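seq:
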Amino acid sequence: MSETPALRRALGRWDLTAIGINQVIGGAIFLLPADVARLVGPWGPLAFLSVGLLSLSIALCFAEVGSRFEKTGGPYLPARAAFGRFIGFEVGWMMWFTRVTSQASVANGLALALAFYWPALATGVPRMSMIAALTIALTMINVRGIKQSSWVVNALTIGKLAPLTIFIIAGVWYIDPAHFAAMPAVTQRDLSSALILLIFAYGGYEVTGVLAGEAANPRRDVPFAFIATLITVAVVMSLTSLVATGVLPDLGGSRTPLADGAAIFLGAAGALMVSAGSAISMAGNNMGQILNGSRTIFALAENGDLPRWFAKVHPTYQTPSNAILFTAVIALTLALTGSFVALAAVSAIARLVMYLAVCASTLVLRKHDREIAAQVGAHFSDLDGAVAPAKFTVPMGPVVPVFASIVAMGILAGASQAQLVAGAAALAAGGALYFLATKLKM
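struct:
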């Protein structure tokens, strides 16, 4: 009797890091410096760096809990181990929900970006055909194997980092110190708005641990990837903001700040390079959404929280083929119908749920470790057996997890009423789905 096919462990620490960077640095970085400048002026680079450090506190919690698990699932696994199946399911559900809506949103964004050069792609059949072709191509790559998917993500990550690196290295010589000579006063309201905007901009690194079940050495490499991802994106985003602020005399008034800045010191070729980088960035982000969204729903099914159909592993390619196809079909439907616009408000509460669950589970699982140490031979259960002790522990005891929880609560402070209502509705829908999947044994 042949063995049940399993996921292939083929990802190294830099593959996981590329996946994390790919999800954080999307098309928004090519516009974000101007959005932040409109709120805090030349304080923008410092705001980018500060929020990067704040986000690192949350990423450190992800790194610690990620060092406990070797299975696919990301934030879902520690939430389930610490707080039970229902809370774990809600975390996994919200993560999948945001991935699939983000995929639809980014696909439409890419169509609009390309429409600048090919106007026909803006509407109608050409737009729908482009979105469908992109989704089908990326889906097939995902189905064909994790290594092939990793190669594509690595290439697209390099493709998006290259123009940003050139922008930074070439542009730093054109920075005008006069742009930083008079640092204006900033109101508390504008500062809060900028920080909340940037907390969202730094989001996406939570996917780094989702692919642990396909990593060669997940308990060692997942923590490394979380930390390397946050440090890399914080440096790139802060320096990008620094150059844009120092080069453009009216950064806040620019609609395409990086392209406008590149045009100053690299000419038309520089502006084209940035535009191409933006398109590559969105394509890479879309690839990552399929990759991580499908693994989240696979993990829910693998652990009995959704029908086993979603946990099927392709016998040849060793990928979660059913989960990949299902995720792609839902995302494509949302993209072509425009339904993702109404669902986008869920992302704020979804991120809050994921971040708080991981920060809290960091403390809960530490407590479980101490209880086990006090009872020789005792064990506590997670999904299939014992939760392993953390291979990486955040220093300073509870200080970082508690501080990270406060940072995460900043998302709630910045959420609108529409986002709160949408988030509550999504959580309620997840609860209903959990009941159907587990209580009725669907």
